[in-house]
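Re: [help] complex structure
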Amino acid sequence: MREVAVIGAGLCKFGFYPERGTLEMGEEAVWNALQDAGVKPKDIQVAYCGTVGVDASLGPMLVGHQILQTVGITGIPISRVENMCSSGSVAFRESWFAIQSGLYDIALAFGVEKLTSTLTKNAWRWRDLLREADEYEGSRGLFPTVIYSLMLTEHMEKYGTTREQTAMVAVKNRFHASMNPYACFQKPITVDDVLNSQPIARLINLLDCCPSCDGCSAVILASSEVAKKYTTKPVYVTASAQVSGTYKSDWPPFLSDVSRRSAKIAYEMAGIGPKDLDVAEIHDAFDINEIVDYEDLGFCGEGEGGPLVQSGATKLGGRLPINTGGGLLSRGHPFGATGCAQIAEITWQLKAQAGARQVQGAKVGLTHTLGGAHQGDMGNCYIHIFKR
Amino acid sequence: MREVAVIGAGLCKFGFYPERGTLEMGEEAVWNALQDAGVKPKDIQVAYCGTVGVDASLGPMLVGHQILQTVGITGIPISRVENMCSSGSVAFRESWFAIQSGLYDIALAFGVEKLTSTLTKNAWRWRDLLREADEYEGSRGLFPTVIYSLMLTEHMEKYGTTREQTAMVAVKNRFHASMNPYACFQKPITVDDVLNSQPIARLINLLDCCPSCDGCSAVILASSEVAKKYTTKPVYVTASAQVSGTYKSDWPPFLSDVSRRSAKIAYEMAGIGPKDLDVAEIHDAFDINEIVDYEDLGFCGEGEGGPLVQSGATKLGGRLPINTGGGLLSRGHPFGATGCAQIAEITWQLKAQAGARQVQGAKVGLTHTLGGAHQGDMGNCYIHIFKR
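Output below.
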């Protein structure tokens, strides 16, 4: 297997930009990645764009091609990939495969999503279309908020997890985001802020949820031989795991099943265990999601996720800082842009470029992305492990 | 580079099924491919689903996962890929990459599209959404029919190509389709039928156009070591080329640019030239498209495409039979399903399984798929070359 490294990454600031175009966000993120890697547009040999295409399906097609044209990347193979919320991680994995083939030495993985225009301009029409299509999720009211509410209820009953503990995840990730100039929300919050924010579903308030915002992220990969020409600090990909799954039982929840199976594959592939990690970006679409991830990824035992966040172990300065970029909760969750944003954060941490939120001496990092649909009972998990 | 072979393929009959679900078509095609390859559902290790998602965007998500669940394939990595009309070829190429990595030995590439329900049920709403999104293509009237009308006009003026010659492409491909039980249209037609069919655009009548129908296609790939366990007739992939492009000049048309560049890469990779081909499936969205392809792929000189089809060289029994499966014109063009349907046809030809439409002694075959959007001035070309 060919050794592949990440040599640079770039984001645009995630946020709510109803008036800002997809191409403009894309241009900024891709350009930042090229600058970070010291790579010229003409050096990119293959590219993958991850996007759910909520916006693209209504108008501009080949959105990846159009974004790359803005920075002068044309002619090369460009493909769109999609697996719901994990679309960006598909882009990364396919880029890694393309380099594995030996056909290419430098690849660009990027992800983009524009959610505000759709939400504001077309929300009502989408609602009608979904209803007419007899969409399973919508027709049963099992939107993500409700699914995570059920998950939290079960976790509280089984393990004594508290609302204060879940709120601590949101507070921690916002604290990290306050040091990330690309994060959607940067103003620190308190546990009380979370507990007193607007109720959305049972036990889930507004600040327990990630924002559906706009954004783009990009990562540049190279074969190890070529990586050395561009950087003295290549960040090697030591594992790439992907699994899918379907609903099997109420507990452990479906998402735990895919996380656990992909974690097993990834740790074996990298030849390490969770104790060897210095930093990780994991899927925190809701704060309870991060607590369950801790357990699924082996950061603690089953049911110990609440106490783990309460101990401060997963905060910057702790034993294993989690979501130093702010996570989906505070960096934001523009679907297709999340996977490469997680990888960008780990790249910067392992290259010691993370500024105020730098994890000192970080050498091994992990990213974990979930993507589900269809009543949340069908989906994917991607785990990548990186080493400098 | 790891040697990879196609070991089996399957289709559902392409057609107009407003009442038939995507999952039902998918189940049939994937099941047929498993049967053809002698592979059990549990043996598939990784899968890629190519679909533009015209239907999926309105309702069912993770359509590939849902199709595979119907045949008992769950848990493995499943990803959706999309590049407009070439989406199925992306699925094939990514499957090939995944096996190249060494992580997997057996992959399933499939493509699906359901166009009738969208066209009938949602056409008006889509029209409104597209108009509101200020969609470039729609707002200028530059739909594919018009683009190919302009291409034909230019080709007639430059090279003396006749309407009879373009019609001969449609007649030839319908003749081939009459022997393909999976083709959308199987009833033979004449040049007069084409010339007297309903006018759609200048010089383009109904029978000059491919039908936007429903369908699914699937192909199973394996590393050469594993392929030998399943078949005595593995069909080796000797080249995989993908390029993208943007509009540069009125002539040669944009699509010729991407075809020519990918052909050059593919022929070099396979170490052969167009004269070494025994059979090919090429992108004939309109009959003039096939004539231009002949020239771009080196089957004849520039401007000689019309005389080539007239000579009978590209008909079954001729020097280089083209689109023996019926092509997009008669097998049909359910966007995402086209790429793997082309590969299925070449697989069957090289395995001598093509029945009445068998090209005797076929050993080397080629597939060529185009995918464009945004006023037809941005798109992709995929070429794969196969050898038994």
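Chain A has a mean pLDDT of 91.
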